[in-house]
Amino acid sequence: MTTTAARLPDDVVEIAATIEARGAIYKVYVDGGGKFCTPVGDLVVVGDTLADLRRGVMTKSKSAKLELSVPVVDLVSGKLPVRGTIVGRHGGTQNVMVRWDGEKGAVQLGTGRDWGNTHHYVDGHITDEELAEYRQLDAVWKAAREARDAWLKKWSIRPTEIVRAAVARAEAPD
Q: Which sign, positive or negative, has the C-alpha torsion 158, 163, 168, 169?
């Protein structure tokens, strides 16, 4: 596998083949020397075989860095909202990468911090007043859930246990 400048050679012909790598589809070309090639970002990957080309595309697409700066807020029920910035995606797992305010480095979304909690990601341009409204709604929701759970605990039955007890009574000697 070799890489060249961003421009495909003049003598390439597109063939009816594509390579899928990291969720992207790459058109395959053959140059005048019979080598396979395809553009990846600002490079052209060249391989002697389609397998070589695919390996090269996987390598170069992994190193091709997607740079984003999208504000986001993570709302975890009962906790203070956390602001951050979506900065790209992980080169190996393709998970979304976020840099949380006040923390060093970027982390994969949904791993590590507060694992197991339900996260709700919202537009990072949300105002503090809108976040206060969310906290009020969250408190009402939590109180309603607790009241519902208490009601269910009081009134719920276990049909299997009722039938088992009835069968045991019916089979018991008088």
A: positive
